[in-house]
Each structure stands twice: as structure tokens, then as C-alpha cells.
């Protein structure tokens, strides 16, 4: 909340993935500017391949921040 400078932390989700496998996460954000979401996977790189239903040039990142 930008007015109170408070944040809400949620428990970590655990996904068990087989080694050498690729996993695709589809992130749908229906939040607002006052509630950004940060996605990070410990010790892994994320490759962004699309945004708002459009393909983009793949970009490797360690953290994805999204706003509505």
C-alpha cells in the first residue's frame, strides 16, 4: 500500500520439477498499480517469451515484476 508503505508477503509455493525439464508458467495479473507482484525462482533464470498475448524476443531475467 503506497499510503502506508505496508506489503503483503505470501508463503512460498513449491513446485517439484524433473531435472532437465522445461516448465512454462502463465502469469495472469488482474491486480492494480497499488499491488505489484514479484516472481522469482530461487537459483533459476526465467525467460520471458510473451506479454499481453503477444510474442516478444526472449529475454532472460532473474526476477519478473508485474503490474496490472
Q: How would you describe this structure to a colleague?
A:
Pfam families: Cu-oxidase (PF00394). Residues 6-65 form the Plastocyanin-like domain. The chain has strands at residues 37-40, 46-51, 54-61, 63-66. By secondary structure, the chain is mostly beta strands. The strands form 2 sheets. It has a two-stranded antiparallel ribbon with strand order 1-4. It is globular and about 45 Å long. The two termini are 15 Å apart. The model has no long low-confidence stretch (mean pLDDT 82).
Salient structural properties:
two-stranded antiparallel sheet; 0% helix; mainly beta; 32% strand; Cu-oxidase_2nd; two-stranded antiparallel ribbon; globular; 68 residues
What class would the helix/strand composition place it in?
A: mainly beta
Low-confidence stretches: none
Fraction of residues in H or I helices:
under 10%
How would you describe the shape?
globular
Number of strands: 4
- Number of alpha- plus pi-helical segments: 0
User: Oligomeric status of the shown chains?
Assistant: single chain
As for the number of domains, it is: 1
Mean pLDDT: 82
Radius of gyration, in angstroms, nearest whole number: 14 Å
**What percentage of the residues does DSSP assign to strands (E)?**
25-35%
Amino acid at each position: 500500500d503506497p499510503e502506508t508503505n505496508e506489503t503483503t508477503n505470501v508463503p512460498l509455493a513449491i513446485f517439484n520439477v524433473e531435472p532437465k525439464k522445461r516448465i512454462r508458467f502463465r502469469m495472469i495479473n488482474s491486480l492494480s498499480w497499488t499491488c505489484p507482484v514479484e516472481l522469482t525462482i530461487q537459483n533459476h533464470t526465467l525467460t520471458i517469451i510473451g506479454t499481453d498475448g503477444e510474442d516478444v524476443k526472449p529475454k532472460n531475467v532473474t526476477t519478473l515484476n508485474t503490474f496490472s
